[in-house]
């Protein structure tokens, strides 16, 4: 039996630690409970949002509708060969918990995505990525319920329309489906080790690791993230607040001419990715604090709640940063988080 609560604080359900209220709140622990909730008048008549780990949310006001907390757990083998294994993972499983499960079993493909907050169900929505790897590289399909009729559908990798921090679930199908599980294909042998992006190679060298494995890559990524990113249980944040912008070749050549030290990464679609953190830092925002909010002193991509901040304060800070980067570089930053 699903339990619906009223006037519940969402402070513990978002990593920014913003204290706003949900008019209605429920936690769904199984597909059966979701079906029960779907049949209710409350689900049909109220505005609604789904929350996983709350790591990609910024609440700027109370939510005057139904907040559905996804707590569906479970990992099962779907298919297996000598070289690969496919796992069907429930959408409420914490992402990092899943990664550690894979590392423990020597299944490769997600080690570069260690310590990313949030749930498995949120991973395909924004095509999470880090250190040269995107989750779309290992996703086989996504199972989801259509919110207008409750019908279940399986989306192939192509149907998910993955792009940089994008998917069909974030664009044309936004708020139209509830993801119930994700199937991922991982390697059992001959793992594709990726240590070329970011500081992984340098960190492995510092740790004096000569035999690179998925375990050592995961360890290095965890070390890097813990050194650069604040623990949201200690200081409110949502990780990287902005996407790394992509510019065309003409814009890139002008930027590189004006700012020769600017780092960049060519993409597969003939665009060039520029680190948003570098742009923000060059505008003088890194480490800056305004009342209850600020930009983290070690990572300019991270906006933080120093305690007691309202969501509007973080939003206003984000808008000021976007404006200053636009003025200095003629590049428009886009938030990676969902803003309500």
What's the helix and strand layout?
Elements: E1 4-9, E2 21-28, H1 31-38, H2 41-45, E3 48-51, E4 57-58, E5 63-70, E6 75-80, E7 84-90, H3 95-104, E8 129-130, E9 133-134, E10 139-146, E11 152-156, H4 157-160, E12 177-187, H5 200-206, H6 214-228, E13 236-240, E14 246-247, H7 249-258, E15 265-266, E16 272-273, H8 276-282, E17 289-290, E18 293-295, E19 302-305, H9 311-329, E20 338-339
Parallel strand pairs: 2-5, 3-5, 4-20
Antiparallel strand pairs: 1-2, 6-7, 7-12, 8-9, 10-11, 10-12, 13-19, 14-16, 15-16, 17-18, 18-19
- Give the helix proportion (percent range): 25-40%
Q: Which strands sit side by side, in order, in the main sheet?
A: 6-7-12-10-11
Sheet with most strands: 5 strands, antiparallel
- Low-confidence spans: none
The figure for the number of domains is 3
SS class: alpha+beta
CATH C-level of the largest domain? Alpha Beta
CATH topology of the largest domain: Uridine Diphospho-n-acetylenolpyruvylglucosamine Reductase, domain 3
**Relative strand content:** 25-35%
Mean pLDDT: 93
Contiguous helical run count: 9
CATH architecture of the largest domain: 2-Layer Sandwich
Rounded to the nearest angstrom, the distance between the terminal CA atoms is 29 Å
């Amino acid at each position: 039996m699903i339990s619906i609560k009223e006037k519940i604080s969402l402070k513990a359900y978002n990593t920014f630690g913003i204290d706003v209220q949900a008019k209605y709140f429920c936690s769904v622990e199984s597909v059966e409970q979701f079906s029960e909730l779907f049949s209710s008048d409350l689900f049909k008549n109220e505005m609604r949002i789904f929350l996983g780990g709350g790591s990609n949310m910024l609440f700027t006001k109370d939510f005057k509708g139904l907040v559905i907390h996804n707590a569906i757990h479970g990992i099962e083998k779907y298919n297996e060969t000598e070289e690969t294994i496919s796992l069907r993972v429930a959408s409420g499983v914490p992402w990092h918990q899943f990664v550690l499960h894979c590392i423990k079993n020597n299944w490769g493909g997600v080690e570069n995505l260690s310590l990313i907050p949030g749930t498995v169900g949120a991973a395909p929505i924004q095509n999470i990525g880090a250190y040269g790897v995107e989750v779309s590289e290992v996703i086989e399909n996504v199972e989801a319920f259509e919110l207008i009729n409750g019908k279940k559908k399986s989306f192939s990798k192509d149907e998910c329309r993955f792009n940089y921090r994008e998917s069909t679930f974030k664009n044309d199908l936004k708020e139209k489906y509830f993801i119930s599980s994700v199937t991922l294909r991982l390697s059992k042998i001959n793992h594709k080790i990726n240590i070329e992006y970011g500081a992984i190679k340098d960190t492995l060298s510092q740790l004096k690791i000569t035999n690179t494995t998925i375990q050592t890559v995961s360890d290095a990524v965890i070390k890097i993230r813990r050194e650069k990113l604040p623990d949201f249980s200690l200081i409110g944040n949502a990780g990287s607040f902005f996407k790394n912008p992509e510019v065309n070749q003409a814009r890139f050549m002008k930027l590189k001419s004006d700012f020769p030290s600017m780092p960049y990464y060519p993409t597969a679609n003939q665009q060039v990715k520029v680190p948003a953190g570098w742009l923000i830092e060059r505008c003088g925002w890194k480490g800056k604090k305004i009342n209850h909010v600020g930009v983290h002193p070690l990572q300019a991509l991270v906006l933080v709640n120093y305690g007691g901040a309202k969501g509007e304060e973080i939003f206003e800070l984000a808008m000021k940063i976007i404006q200053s980067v636009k003025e200095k570089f003629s590049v428009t930053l886009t938030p990676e988080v969902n803003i309500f």
